[in-house]
Specification:
Blueprint: H1 10-17, E1 20-21, H2 31-38, E2 43-46, H3 55-65, E3 70-73, H4 94-100, H5 103-119, E4 124-125, H6 150-165, E5 173-177, H7 198-205, H8 207-214, E6 219-222, H9 239-247, E7 253-255, H10 262-265, H11 270-280, E8 285-286, H12 302-319, H13 325-349, H14 370-374, E9 379-381, E10 390-395, H15 410-416, E11 420-421, H16 432-435, E12 441-447, H17 455-466, E13 471-474, E14 488-491, H18 497-507
Parallel strand pairs: 1-8, 2-3, 3-4, 5-6, 6-7, 10-11, 10-12, 12-13, 13-14
Antiparallel strand pairs: 9-14
Helix pairs in contact: 1-12, 1-13, 5-6, 6-8, 11-12, 15-18
């Protein structure tokens, strides 16, 4: 399949394609993507929709059309996973690692993420999160961060980078520069502001990025956030902010956060945003997930049209001299240098670990006993063990963000392995439905937004009045010392299969039904 429109000089097209990594639909390589790879496309980004038992074969198909392609994926451990989107992650999340505070464990978690990525044919892990979550109400970072203290976040982000990159054939990506941890809105949906003094930003929120750079991180992702003192443009499109990243000594590839996020698409647009990002100093343009892009969701060719929008905008900008071709070529050369180095290392390391789950991105190499390592870091308020014959699971968690993207039923599966489960309880039926539950039914309430006042805290008050024996499982930020709840609580620090298994064992005490 040939790609239409513009018929540019092949060398210009190669430079343009060399700075783009699109998402796409399905678990097989679409013809348009194969053609674009042949014409110099830098690579692809996998999302949960692309993952199957044959992901390694899909990666081989990509490389058949471009041997040094970048194959990227959001894989953070804990709440955010693509490789285990259906089941939930079995690797500790950043907040869990930060709470345990074992640098070696963070390195091991990074190595495990890399091994699973490698088994799927992936060579660029879009993680770890290097944001310092200083705002407990942050709707998009939260437990994706290693914590609220910059020194600790710096240590564990750097350790995770070292683990991911230890073998040389998988690159890490520290995100989201200049720091998304003190924002009050989700940049997938609107433009957040980091409304802090620049001295505080550079002292606190830059610190983990400095540590990641010192650890040799090969890529850094920008944030779609505004810093008023540094101009009105979001960081991704702001040459002053990206210049500050280079001034920290970073010489690797600067990757944009997804250009299909509403903050870009609904302001300047993905195409003009791509041009502005390259002009600002970005090297690699992540287009994003066509399934969740609010501008094209539901269109069968959204992946292809999203790619064309960005590609053709760059071609037109070069043709009109709005975008300097030499600048574009330097960005493409930086991307190509990374891709060549990763491919050379992959060729030397041989085939990835094989096994019954290797094709789906899971790894069969020995890993630490994650549950044994993580469980001691979970905070327990009261005595959560229960001895009923059944469990009624009430899910009050907020709808998964676009960043999380997973709607796995890890907690239902974990409890179903140990107890009979009652039908799901509707939050709209509170509190009467719980008051009518049998006395031999244990009530477990899942929450993720009790770190700040709001509807979830109010619901727990209602529940406590009718079922004071209910157990709260919090998978979000741990509430501060000023919050008191009458119910027993486990702060799990991640919404994942690993957390679900630990929590179910704690609540369904051994020796009971």
């Amino acid at each position: 399949m040939s790609i239409p429109a513009l018929t540019p000089d092949p060398a210009v097209l190669e430079a343009v394609n060399g700075v783009i990594v699109p998402g796409f639909f399905g678990t097989e390589l679409p013809p348009w993507l194969a053609a674009a790879l042949e014409e110099g496309l830098a690579g692809v980004v996998y999302f949960g929709q692309n993952i199957s038992a044959d992901t390694a074969a899909l990666s081989a198909s990509v490389r058949a059309h471009r041997s040094n392609a970048l194959l990227a994926i959001d894989e953070e451990g804990g709440t955010v996973t693509r490789l285990e989107a259906v089941s939930g992650s079995t690797i500790p999340g950043p907040a869990q690692l930060g709470r345990v505070n074992d640098v070696g464990l963070s390195t091991a978690a990074g190595a495990a993420i890399a091994a699973r990525a490698r088994a799927a044919g992936v060579n660029l892990v879009l993680g770890p999160v290097a944001d310092v979550n200083t705002n407990p109400a942050n709707p998009v970072i939260g437990v994706r961060s290693f914590g609220a203290e910059a020194p600790a976040v710096a240590v564990h982000a750097a350790a995770t980078v070292r683990g991911i990159q230890a073998s040389g054939d998988v690159a890490a990506c520290a995100k989201h520069f200049p720091g998304h941890g003190d924002t009050h809105s989700d940049s997938h949906l609107s433009l957040p502001e980091l409304d802090l003094g620049t001295a505080e930003i550079e002292a606190v929120h830059f610190e983990p990025f400095r540590a990641a750079i010192d650890a040799g991180v090969r890529t850094i992702m920008t944030a779609h956030i505004r810093v008023p003192e540094w101009g009105q443009a979001p960081a991704t499109l702001n040459p002053l902010i990206l210049g500050k990243l280079r001034a920290l000594g970073f010489e690797g590839v600067i990757i944009t956060d997804a250009l299909d996020m509403a903050v870009i698409r609904e302001s300047v647009g993905a195409g003009p945003g791509a041009v502005a990002a390259i002009r600002a100093g970005a090297d690699l343009l992540c287009i994003g997930n066509p399934r969740t892009n609010p501008g094209t969701t539901g269109k069968p060719d959204a992946d292809y049209s999203d790619y064309l929008e960005v590609r053709d905008a760059l071609l037109a900008a070069v043709a009109s001299d709005e975008l300097d071709l030499d600048l574009l070529r330097r960005a493409a050369a930086r991307v190509r240098s990374l891709a060549d180095a990763l491919e050379a290392a992959r060729s030397l390391s041989g085939p990835p670990t094989s096994g019954p789950v290797a094709g789906s991105g899971l790894n069969t190499e020995p890993e630490p006993d994650w549950a044994a390592e993580v469980a001691p870091g979970m905070e327990i308020q009261g005595s959560p063990a229960r001895h009923g014959s059944r469990v009624s699971l009430l899910d009050l968690r907020a709808r998964a963000t676009i960043a999380v993207a997973s709607e796995s039923d890890a907690f239902r599966r974990a409890f179903a392995e140990r107890r009979k489960l009652d039908p799901a309880v509707s939050a709209a039926a509170l509190p009467d439905s719980l008051g009518q539950a049998a006395t031999d039914t244990d009530v477990v309430v899942l929450v993720d937004r009790i770190g700040v006042p709001g509807s979830q805290r109010e619901a727990l008050e209602q529940i406590g009045a009718v079922r004071p024996d209910a157990v709260v499982v919090n998978v979000g930020v741990v509430p501060g010392t000023g919050y008191e709840c009458r119910l027993d609580r486990i702060d799990a620090l991640a919404d994942s299969a690993l957390s679900a298994g630990i929590v179910a064992r704690l609540i369904c005490a051994e020796g009971t039904a």
